[in-house]
């Protein structure tokens, strides 16, 4: 039987009984997670070495802080926090899970922006990490952010049950690595014809959806699953959140592709119109702008439908699905 916080007498997500969450209320809730995440990451990236560490090199730490603080929507941590809130999991633990997935995300951006990858000069409206520092430092900063993510999940303060911590580590590793985000990036580069003797490949819709589910969707899907794992939710709840997370991951990438095709660089915070120039496989390139917009609307509806078992408790996550479709950056 699917059990949520409201059914067990908690407060928070279960208190939302008044129908659709308006945009202002959603923004306030998201802003709270953004502020909490910024404070947590700031503390985690302090200068003092932890037990087992010899020192924290200043330039490396500065680059890690540059890559992860002072920007970003923090949407992945938000999904982790709100998914865990469905079941009354302690917020401080959910924030640790959110911080772990955000560190993986920030590492991936620092590496993706490198000349050997996407070769971007601008990220979040400011110079990319390798431009602000140098390529070697950006690589090492990404390596250190990735490692720190798993450090967080292994800590007892994330959850007192070692079995839960192991499950979180495994789930994030699978989402981040060979069969997830990193594998998706490799497929993306191959499709661009980036390797010796390669030619750009025209991927069909199914192959493109697989690529995007790995490169972008996997971490978003983990963010929802991570909240359920942390809360030790039952199988039915986990399955519902997995359906939601899968749809959200697809929707986020389609929205991103549309922003690249139509967005203003000043608003988006990075260069746009790069996908077509690089012959990237996207649903926009396959279906056109109108077709991609229809696909996005269908994915938002799919995400909202997946939350039906949670009733009114799922309204924050429903609003998150709408936010994905409506965002401008």
TrEMBL record:
UniProt cross-references to InterPro entries, sorted A to Z: Isoprenoid_synthase_dom_sf (IPR008949), Polyprenyl_synt (IPR000092), Polyprenyl_synt_CS (IPR033749), Prenyl_diphosphate_synthase (IPR053378)
| Required co-factors | Mg(2+)
> Record keywords: Transferase included?
yes
User: Does the record's keyword annotation contain Iron?
Assistant: no
Gene Ontology MF annotations: metal ion binding; prenyltransferase activity
What PROSITE patterns does the record tag this protein with? POLYPRENYL_SYNTHASE_2
> What are the record keywords, sorted?
Isoprene biosynthesis, Magnesium, Metal-binding, Transferase
Q: Name one GO cellular component term.
A: cytoplasm
| Pfam families, per database record | polyprenyl_synt
Q: Spell out the CDD domains in the cross-references.
A: Trans_IPPS_HT
Tell me which family the UniProt entry assigns to this protein. Belongs to the FPP/GGPP synthase family.
Q: Which PANTHER family match?
A: FARNESYL DIPHOSPHATE SYNTHASE
What is this protein identified as? Probable farnesyl diphosphate synthase
Species of origin: Rhodoplanes serenus
